[in-house]
Automatic annotation (TrEMBL):
RNA-binding among keywords: yes
Domain KH type-2, residue spans: 225-279
Domain of life: Bacteria
Organism: Fusobacterium mortiferum
Gene Ontology biological process terms, A to Z: tRNA pseudouridine synthesis
InterPro entries: KH_dom-like_a/b, KH_dom_type_2, KH_sf_prok-type, PsdUridine_synth_cat_dom_sf, PsdUridine_synth_TruA, PsdUridine_synth_TruA_C, TruA/RsuA/RluB/E/F_N
Pfam families: KH_2
Upper taxonomic lineage: Bacteria, Fusobacteriati, Fusobacteriota, Fusobacteriia, Fusobacteriales
Sorted UniProt keywords: Isomerase, RNA-binding
Name recorded for this polypeptide: Pseudouridylate synthase
MF terms in GO: catalytic activity, acting on RNA; pseudouridine synthase activity; RNA binding
PANTHER family cross-referenced by the UniProt entry: PSEUDOURIDYLATE SYNTHASE, TRNA PSEUDOURIDINE SYNTHASE-LIKE 1
Length: 284
């Protein structure tokens, strides 16, 4: 990620970790006149007064009625306030069908889905409706795990996609199917679940499927900014850094910015020798 993106930008990227009950929504993406996950998120954020540029990206796009114990919505915003307060305000306005569990700050203007390393799903079908034996289920999990063309496990919309090769790992534990992969075709998990559990290549109901985890790429993990408590620099009111501590964000007032940088950048150059990459931001 290019440091110049934040040097010359007044926006930050925000990852909103959310959980939701998919059965309480018509669908995931915004549809006029329907209660959707993205639509409800947008409504509540507008009510709070939080705004962003362009659209909302997601870690995983879930089918209708599919729930999530962890999904991520990503936006680029000029907001630079207290993330915890923002989360609390959102959750006070929302009901139990949609909650923010965590907010992380990163680079703005990312192609966010491309920075997701893996997505994990759990399918829990009623035991009385399972047709295949445990041995058959475990064998199919092994047979269907790997990297290959999964065209037989998607719908017409999926077949229209250019790339049909996917890598997936499937297991069965305690009556639940576990799917892990970097990307999934439309309805792939539900159709695979149908085949593994009932022997039929038909999409099972979305209400039994849960997106359980979004695993970020190492590049993105390293570029999440957190407050630094163990470094103090004169004239700096707040310090943030990435995970590897090779990029620091120094927040200072307009009055103290010149002194912090120094004549011909002398002071900031000295700090860079100690801390590495540094970006100076004015506190509004």
């Amino acid at each position: 990620m290019d440091i110049r993106t934040i040097e010359k930008n007044d926006k930050w990227g925000y990852m909103f970790y959310i959980k939701y009950d998919g059965t309480k929504f018509h669908s995931f993406d915004e549809i006029v006149g329907k209660r959707t996950v993205k639509g409800r998120f947008k409504e509540l954020m507008n009510e709070i007064g939080f705004s962003w540029a362009k659209g909302i990206q997601q870690g995983g796009r879930t089918d209708a009625k599919v729930s999530a114990t962890e999904n991520i919505l990503y936006v680029s915003s000029k907001f630079d306030g207290n993330k915890k307060n923002l989360q609390e305000r959102f959750n006070l306005l929302s009901d139990e069908s949609l909650k923010i569990t965590m907010i992380k700050k990163t680079f703005p203007n990312l192609a966010f889905p491309e920075l997701v390393g893996r997505r994990e799903y759990i399918y829990e079908y009623p035991k009385k409706r399972v047709k295949n034996s445990l041995e058959e289920i475990e064998k199919l999990c092994r047979d269907l795990s790997g990297r290959y063309d999964v065209s037989e496990f998607t719908d017409k919309k999926g077949l229209e996609l250019k790339e049909h090769i996917r890598e997936v790992d499937i297991s069965f534990k305690n009556g639940k199917l576990f799917f892990s992969g970097n990307s999934f075709m439309p309805k792939q998990v539900r159709i695979m679940s149908g085949y593994i559990l009932t022997g039929r290549k038909e999409a099972l109901e979305g209400k039994y499927l849960t997106l359980s985890k979004i695993v970020l790429s190492e590049e993105l993990k390293n570029n999440i900014f957190e407050k630094v408590e163990d470094v103090k620099i004169a004239g700096v009111e707040r310090i943030e850094s990435n995970r590897d501590r090779n990029l620091y964000i120094l927040y200072t007032s307009k009055e103290k910015k010149g002194e912090l940088i120094g004549k011909n950048g002398k002071n900031i150059k000295a700090l860079k020798k100690i801390y590495g990459n540094i970006v100076v931001k004015e506190i509004c």
